[in-house]
Amino acid sequence: MVLFEQSSIVKELTTLTYDMWSKGWDEYNGGNVSCILRDEDLEQLPRDEPIKQATVEDIPFSMVGKYILITASGSHFRNLKDHIKRDLGVIKVTEKGYDIVWGFLENRRPTSELYMHLLAHAQRLEIDFNHRVVVHNHAPNAAAYSLISDHDDKSYTLPLWRVLTESIVVFPDGVGILPWELPGTLDIALHTVEKLRKCRLVVWAFHGILATGRDFQDCFGLIETVDKAAMIHMKTRTSRQYEGLSDDDLYAVCQVLKVQPREGFLDFSKRGQNEVKNIITNLQ
Ligand code: 13P
Ligand code: ZN
């Protein structure tokens, strides 16, 4: 039997954390990651007695009984792959908190953003049965742009859609943004969850970004796209006045690539329906 630390889910996570550090998204101990384990992942998990039990208030009921692979508070993503059993752990969510069932050696404990991870999983599972992963990091362009953007979802999202054609395809639900809040609190978790009702990405102003999705690559790609669009936007906005892609252009992208943009963000009133035919339709 493969040791759990050598299982594919752990390898995927350690590859992700190293890649994120390489991108400059996780300075020092910045960032945290969690993943709901499937039955096939659990087959490789030794089922001994819980190593430790912790009490946490306000556990979302729908998460009780789930096993979650999650990074340790204080872990450094640069070298997490060399300290897997210390910097990673598996918790089983209980009504009163959680049991540590694997990892977290040397008295480590789950990330200080545990509330956010548990509540975000619960919220996204209501919307997508296949949801499994939450990734938080300090992607610098996404964070820098939060200093100059208004702190409402539409103001933050629209410039990103307008400067990079694929943005609206990758995140048609837009990006939610919260004003600055204390990290690691139940409050920031509750406010994040409000945003996650409508979209899969949330920026914490003056701090970082989080993505929710079906796997690690999905979350990585979402953040990568937001961060790149934010970089392009900030690099060009002061050097030359430009409008970026118009509502009509974005509408055409949505039609061709069959995505539904977040309601209320674009004005389609001047555009007749069905003006742009999809290539697939044309071929038939
Ligand atoms: P942890 O080391 O507790 O995961 O905290 C890092 C972080 O980014 C907090 O927002
Ligand atoms: Zn953070």
Quick overview of this protein structure:
This is Rhamnulose-1-phosphate aldolase. This protein is an alpha+beta fold and 284 residues long.
Write the layout of secondary structure elements.
Layout: H1 8-22, E1 32-36, H2 39-42, E2 52-55, E3 67-71, H3 84-87, E4 88-94, E5 97-103, H4 114-127, E6 133-137, H5 140-148, H6 153-163, H7 167-170, E7 175-178, H8 186-196, E8 201-204, E9 208-213, H9 216-236, H10 247-257, H11 279-283
Parallel strand pairs: 7-8
Antiparallel strand pairs: 1-3, 1-6, 2-5, 3-4, 4-5, 6-9, 8-9
Describe the structure in your own words.
The protein is α+β, with helices and mostly antiparallel strands and 284 residues long. The chain folds into two domains: 4-236, Class II aldolase/adducin N-terminal domain (L-fuculose-1-phosphate Aldolase, 3-Layer(aba) Sandwich); 247-283, no CATH class. It has eleven helices and nine strands. The protein has a nine-stranded mixed beta sheet, with helices on both faces. Helix 8 links the parallel strand 7 (175-178) and strand 8. It is elongated, with a radius of gyration of 20 Å. 1,3-dihydroxyacetonephosphate is lined by residues 29-32, 73-74, 111-113, 183.
